[in-house]
Amino acid sequence: MRDEAVNRARGIFTVLDADGNGVLEEADFHLLSSRLEAAAVHSTPAQREAVRVSLRDWWTALVAGLDQDGDGRVDFEEYRGGVLSPQRFGATVAAFARALAALGDPEGDGTVTRERFTALMTAIGFAPDRVAAVFDAFGPSADDRIEATAWQAGVLDYFDPAKTDIPGDHLAIPPAS
């Protein structure tokens, strides 16, 4: 796996490990869902439920596909071995990407403001400066909005190790020196 892809995997693992205990557990996905719901103050109940369901399904797919020792948790080595595999997890990541973009576009006009993007991405656990760089890389409009579909596609790109020079690369944790 390319260093860039490993850095993405490390970054994703870090934010999915919402309680910071070094392993992914079901509770992390509940905590992440709660944080997103709290940040999505303008979203509808259906949009919040879609995020809850997508995160539940993502956890279910991860533990079923990556928990090699059967302990009901996924450590980084287990995670790294298969997470950036669009054919294995593409459907669950796509469902999350759709739900996340919808939270950012509660009016359904097809755009996401910088404020909402920042609130949601920092609720996930990404650093504000990196979130700002990602938003800028999407090429916001004059009124500081990005297309919700571009964000959705960007999430999918981030999970595809074949993709390079994508906006989400601004989120990746740089390699240790």
TrEMBL record:
<dbReference type="InterPro" id="IPR018247">
    <property type="entry name" value="EF_Hand_1_Ca_BS"/>
</dbReference>
<protein>
    <submittedName>
        <fullName>EF-hand domain-containing protein</fullName>
    </submittedName>
</protein>
<dbReference type="Pfam" id="PF13499">
    <property type="entry name" value="EF-hand_7"/>
</dbReference>
<feature type="domain" description="EF-hand">
    <location>
        <begin position="96"/>
        <end position="124"/>
    </location>
</feature>
<feature type="domain" description="EF-hand">
    <location>
        <begin position="58"/>
        <end position="86"/>
    </location>
</feature>
<dbReference type="InterPro" id="IPR002048">
    <property type="entry name" value="EF_hand_dom"/>
</dbReference>
<feature type="domain" description="EF-hand">
    <location>
        <begin position="8"/>
        <end position="36"/>
    </location>
</feature>
<dbReference type="InterPro" id="IPR011992">
    <property type="entry name" value="EF-hand-dom_pair"/>
</dbReference>
